[in-house]
Fold this protein.
Amino acid sequence: MLSGKEYLKSIRDGRRVYIGKELVTDITNHPAFVKGAQSVAMIYDQKSAPENRDVMVSEEDGEEFSTYFLKPKTRDDLEKRYETHRRIAAWTHGFMGRSPDNFPSYLTGLATQPEVFNELRGGTGDFLEAYYLKARRDDLYMSHAVTNPQGSRRAGEEIQAAGAVSPTLRVVSEDDDGVTINGLKMIGTASIYCHETWVGNLQPVPPGNEAETITCAVPLNYDGVSIWSRKSYEKMANTEFDMPLSARYDETDAAILFENVKVPWERVFLHNNVAMTREIYFKTPGHSLANHQANIRFAEKLRLIVAIARKLTESNKAGNIPAVKSTLGNLAAQLATLDGMVRGQIFDCEDMPGGYVTINKRFMYAALHWCTNNYSTICDVVRELMGGGPIQMPADSSVMEDPDLNKKFETYWSLPNQSAKDRMKLFRLAWDILGTEFAGRHMLYEKFYAGPGFIMDLYSYHHARWDELDVIVDDLMAGYDL
């Protein structure tokens, strides 16, 4: 298992990251990424610390590995995975959504059912199992890029006829050694900090675009791979005091460009199969285990938001107003609701082929639906409790570096039980959750990280037990007649 220091060394590997026109070859020393990398290193160190090893380190055949690679066979295994996810989320207060435990949950779920892949192409399931063991052994930090650029869809025959280059990633050639891929994949959240990325599709691929169905794992320092970062919020954060979350927990998002990248067959897990390119995640526990992690991570973020709400009402002397108490009680109830939905996923877990178990999918998709539909509303409520406090503060903490200004600041901005500095510190933290560009990104992320709203509805539609619900009505009507 990697230490934080070993992790940082392992990502100084010649990858090509663009932030605007600047090419960054060492993210561990760049002002746009250094603290984010250190936050990931902190996770690597913490999960191996003595106080966490009993939960966060598992063992099989004499090999130790991170518990998020544990293939669950019992409810106790799911409990151990839950607590591993919960601690990792708590260390970043849920603001690093694609933390090192996210994609391994997909991969671990896929690897419990290798026969699904062997049925598609002989030997592919064996490749998948071997890759899972490699990722587990090497303690890989992995991302996934499984959506296509917006508005870029072109049918294969259209591309051929026009002699154009498709912006959407596809296989452009193959031989005995593997496939060559070319094109763009989205959205590589945290890819800048990862060792490898998984390329695939969580969107349906229409017939005629079989070349786009490629599903494979690619090291991010391969020739022809480049990562195009969005604007860095970490770089904008002048101090941790002023923007404490932006400064430390900006996992960044990126487009990943593959320019004629050769991928060997042992890293290819699906090819030329429109019907299954998306279904592999649902015929295995891959999607359910990964989004269980997302539910747990969201709950830790919500825990911080509810705590901030209470602190803000104490600061602005509104905490004893009955209507404010009611609002805080409503927020506390919503946190308890989500905690209950997450715990229920484990309590009512489901059996899978091969002696494995997974969390209750119906409860998980209900929680996912709840999270994506309630985050912005919750933030609006807390923003209202906060009031105009943030914009009543000086521009930034530099005001406290000047003795004369700081004296005036403490004289006129303090409260009887709260110094001006502490008051500003609280408002800066709240604003980084609710009002900064970092906060705006999280508003977008929580709404769309699992897909658009109608997809959330369909997940719950497909997992509803309609036959059981039908019986309720049929039995009731069978008990009376004319």
User: Anything to note?
Assistant: The mean pLDDT is 95. The radius of gyration is 24 Å. Residues 286-473 form a domain with the Butyryl-CoA Dehydrogenase, subunit A; domain 3 fold (CATH 1.20.140.10).
